[in-house]
Structure formats: C-alpha cells, structure tokens
Design a protein that fits this description.
Helix content is 77%, strand content 0%. It is mostly helical. Helix 7 runs antiparallel to helix 8 and helix 7 packs across helix 15.
C-alpha cells in the first residue's frame, strides 16, 4: 500500500508537469493515492489530498473528481473530524449530480460512504438496511468482480452484522453471517485480505464470549497487518486487543493506539475504531 501511495503521487506529479488534457488520469491517481493512504494509515496526508483535489475539482467543474473525492474512503477526511453529518451532506450533494442510469463506480463509492457513516455513528439498523437495499444492484453491476470492491463490500456486510450482534437475541444468526463473509474474504488468499478476515473473526469470538479465540485472532490480525503495511487496521486491532486483554498491560495498549489515532488528527478514536472493528464492548 505504501508503494501504491508513493507511485500514485509520482505519477500524478508527472502527469501535471508533462501532460495536457489528463484531468481524468490525474483524478484517478489521486483516488488511488487516497485509498492507499487509508490502508497505510497516513490520515493527515489523506485529509490534505482530499482537500486539495476537491478544491481543484470544484474550480474546474470536474464532476468525476468532485464526486470521487466526496465519497468512498475519501469520507475518512470528514470522519476524522468527527463530522458524520458533514460527510453525509457532501456525499449526497455529489451523488445528486451524478447519473442515476446504471450502476457505476460512483454508486459503489456512495454505498461505501453510507455504510461507513452508519457504522461510525453506531446506527446499526441504518447500516444493515442500506447494505441490504444496495446489495442486489451492486452484484448486478459486476463491480464485485474487482477484488478491492468485493472485499470491501463483504467487510461492510460483516461489520454491520457484528455491530448488530450486540443484541443477544439476534446474535447467533448474525455471527454466522459475519463468519461466512470473513471466510469469503480469507479465500482471496492475498497478504492484505487474510488479516481483515482475522479482525472480523476476532469480533465474532468477542461477541460469543470466547476471549481466548478473540485474542488469538487479534494477534494474527496484528501480525498480518504489520506484514502488509496496513497501519490503520493494525492500530484498530491493537486497540481491541488491549480491551480484550484488560489489566494494566491491556490499558496501556489501548492508550497507545488512541494516542496514535489522535496524532493522525482523529478526534473521536473510539468511534473510529468501532467503524473499523465492531463486535467488541465499547
């Protein structure tokens, strides 16, 4: 992911310096850079990039770029500031100007935005309803043939199930659903997807009251995120591991994770972690 972020930045600079009429290519590089920065965990740079690209897009009347940098993982720039209402308004304003015919990448980005915001706010019913409503159209679009889209969609659905599983009466079916989606993610057999599956399975174990399995999956996730240079998820997993372990050592781990997020200008670390890793006691 770091190689991707740095490569996108170099290419963006090259395109701006040497090419004309390359606004689509420049905006696409910026989008890939934002996605990569999210996984790397460089949220300060992500926020800066979103601000710069969005301002440039508005000045040029570039609907493609203006939509892309108000939706999807770019939504992180607003959630960092603990502004879910602002994030929702920006996304809905952008998508209102986009075509409603067909199902495009931008509609997928809108799917991601609404799911992220609902999970961040703890509005479990809204998250699950949104995902269920949008899922058939997303499948028909064939966008889930793209690995990144497929993995993120499965993770949003699994996280929404985990968040809802805090209700004991609904837990068994929801935990089975989250486990199925985690297994689908694991079957991607890539270095970056395996720890994401472990993080979901840690939440399943925590909901089921299996502390030992929750710790085992969190430790596996941490090792995997470290190997894949996915610092944001690594920090979320450490935050949760500290909570599950408890005691002074666990509290220290959670405090260190919270400090890391605050250094990245995340105003509400607890909510941010809940968005990435639900299923634990908050």
């Amino acid at each position: 992911w770091r190689d991707a972020a740095e490569g996108a930045a170099r290419l963006e600079h090259w395109l701006r310096e040497r090419c004309t009429g390359a606004s689509w290519e420049v905006a696409s590089c910026g989008l890939w850079r934002v996605w990569s920065l999210f996984y790397v965990g460089d949220l300060v740079e992500l926020e800066r990039c979103v601000s710069l690209f969005l301002r440039d897009a508005e000045e040029r009347g570039d609907l493609y770029a203006a939509t892309n940098f108000r939706t999807g993982l770019a939504t992180t720039a607003w959630l960092m500031r603990d502004d879910p209402a602002g994030a929702r308004e920006e996304a809905r304003t952008a998508l209102a100007r986009w075509s409603r015919q067909g199902y495009h990448t931008q509609h997928w980005l809108g799917f991601s935005t609404e799911a992220m915001i609902a999970l961040y706010e703890g509005d479990v019913a809204a998250a699950r309803a949104h995902i269920a409503q949008q899922w058939p159209a997303l499948r028909r679009s064939l966008l889930m043939r793209v690995q990144a889209v497929r993995v993120e969609a499965l993770l949003f659905r699994a996280r929404a199930a985990l968040a809802a599983a805090r209700d004991p009466g609904a837990a068994p079916a929801l935990l089975r659903a989250a486990t199925r989606d985690a297994r689908r993610v694991r079957r991607e057999r890539t270095r970056w997807t395996a720890p994401l599956a472990d993080l979901v399975e840690a939440g399943v174990a925590a909901c089921a009251g299996d502390r030992a399995q929750a710790v085992a999956h969190l430790e596996a996730a941490i090792r995997g995120f470290d190997a894949a240079d996915m610092a944001l998820y690594l920090i979320a997993a450490r935050y949760r591991l500290g909570e599950v372990q408890g005691g002074e050592a666990g509290a220290a781990l959670t405090r260190a994770a919270r400090a890391w997020l605050e250094a990245q200008r995340v105003r509400n670390p607890a909510r941010f972690v809940t968005m990435l890793a639900p299923g634990f006691d908050d």
